[in-house]
Amino acid sequence: MRGIRGWIGVVVLCAGMLPIVAGAKVSGEERAVLTSPPAVPPPIARKHATKLIVELEVRERVGQISDGVEYTFWTFGGTVPGSFIRVRTGDEIEFHLRNHPDNKVPHNIDLHAVTGPGGGATSSFTPPGHETVFSFKALNPGLYVYHCATAPVGMHIANGMYGLILVEPEGGFPAVDREYYVMQGDFYTRGGNGDPGLQPFSMEKALREDADYVVFNGSVGSLTEGGALQARVGERVRLYVGNGGPNLVSSFHVIGEIFDTVYVEAGDAENHNVQTTLVPAGGAAIVEFVVDVPGTFILVDHSIFRAFNKGALGMMKVSGPEDKVVYSGKQDQRIYLPEGGAVQKMPGRGANAPKAESAAERVAMGKVVYETNCVACHQADGAGIPGAFPPVAKSDFLEGDIDRTIDVVLNGLEGPLTVNGVSYNNVMPSLGLSDEQVANVLSYVMNSWGNPGGDVTPEQVAKRRKK
Ligand code: CU
Questions:
Q1: 124 C-alpha to ligand 1 centroid (Å)
Q2: Residue 380 Rama label (left phi>0; alpha psi -120 to 50; beta)
Q3: pLDDT over 90 (residue 428)
Q4: What is the pLDDT confidence band of residue 11, given thresholds at 50, 70 and 90?
Q5: Are 298 and 255 in contact (CB under 8 A)?
Q6: Which one, of 80, 109, 65, 37, lies nearest residue 201 by Cα?
Q7: 414 C-alpha to center of ligand 1: Å?
Q8: Helices then strands (H, E): number in the chain?
């Protein structure tokens, strides 16, 4: 990148003051303040470039990637993503990379902010128990990814070896009320998503780019509930968003917000009024927005199965007074009658369905009902979708009162529910099935996937419907 700010390398007229000739000697020496995500070091107050000492330690450590699932992360500074580094254009950085003696393998660092072979990687190969030092000058302002580049590079990155380094332009960025550090990464485990225990890295899945987890800040739920980002109504928020990959591009979006400003690809180009910004693997973006109303705003990769099924979901909790003009909340809910003013009784969807002649035929017909109405949520194998829709295979809910199950299919269900010891909180609609269809589909479910068997009749369903 050598945009407008990059040309500061020649001569800069700083708001009408004396010209500053680039390449002027830096003055002083400082030690960089590094922070763990989602914190960002304070803006750089000094008005001159300096010699800046950065010390970063690699730690290989077991941590939680999801509830009950552990992973051996390789980290810069003990966290995924690694420590946030903040420097200023013109700074001469003396970089110390330390590889803790307890670690098992050598590492190095490639900073995209470096102009030079390997971005520093060729000078920083560091076996466990060693420290290497190299220096570089921050020539170009911007937000840059850094990562390990030791072979096999993909594996080192997949294990969490990436982070961000911000090179502030001379004069800095405009002041904002809050700054946060959010970085996406994709993970590949031997077991599937949610399989418990310590999960080793799967090279096979990484090669296929078939991620089990796609997360912000190193684990599922790192930015939800207690870890949620915070802001107050009226504040301007700046997010430094990175994507470590190793494979996937992020469609970064905050549900219920519009980015007032995006520094596209974290370069000089500013875009405004953006809903979703692409963050390439090995790239970054800076997004800014003012929070106008209170509530919980959800950060996602809008490749949406990643958000709701693989972990790429965070939260920003905004507190403060409502503004009912900007957002009213639900104002009314009423019956919608497209055919006119009178309440109409619509015929059930299965009013003309044929009658099953035997229990076996009922199960066969029920399979068709299931595949038409139930399969999207409860899945073809009855396993449901973890965290969203409960299983109907080997479900302890079905072992209970059959009338309760009939009621759910007839009337739908809303709110918390526990199945096989796992809680769910979702909405199942009333499907408008006939008595015959309800009997058929329940008979199918009771006789499938290791469920206990049994026969539900249309008469049983009719009785429940009367209630
Ligand atoms: Cu490494």
A1: 11
A2: alpha
A3: no
A4: very low
A5: yes
A6: 65
A7: 47
A8: 9, 25
CA 150–ligand 1 middle distance (angstroms):
5
Check residue 22 and give its pLDDT: 43
Helices 458-466 and 435-446, axial angle in degrees (round to 10): 120
Higher pLDDT, 428 or 282: 282
Amino acid in position 84: F
How close is the Cα of 156 to the center of ligand 1, in Å? 5
d(CA 168, CA 94): 17
Distance 230 CA to ligand 1 centre (A): 32
Of the CA atoms within 13 Å of residue 217, those in its CB half-sphere come to 24
Ligand 1 centroid to Cα of residue 162, in Å, is 9
Query: Ligand 1 centroid vs 111 CA: distance in angstroms?
Result: 13
Q: How far is the CA of 183 from the centre of ligand 1 (A)?
A: 18
Q: How confident is the model at residue 89 (pLDDT cuts 50, 70, 90)?
A: very high
**Tokens representing residue 427 in the block:** 């909405």
Neighbours of 134 (CB within 10 A): 18
Ligand 1 centroid–CA 92 distance in Å is: 24
* Distance in Å, CA 154 to ligand 1 centroid: 9
Q: How far is the CA of 184 from the centre of ligand 1 (A)?
A: 18
3-state secondary structure of 187: strand
Residue (of 217, 165, 216, 151) closest to 56 by Cα position: 165
Name the pTM for this structure: 0.73
Do residues 295 and 276 make contact, with C-beta atoms less than 8 angstroms apart? no
User: Which amino acid belongs to residue 125?
Assistant: F
* 444 φ/ψ angles, rounded to the nearest 5 degrees: -60, -45
The token pair at 370 is 């299931």
pLDDT interval class at 23 (50, 70, 90) = very low
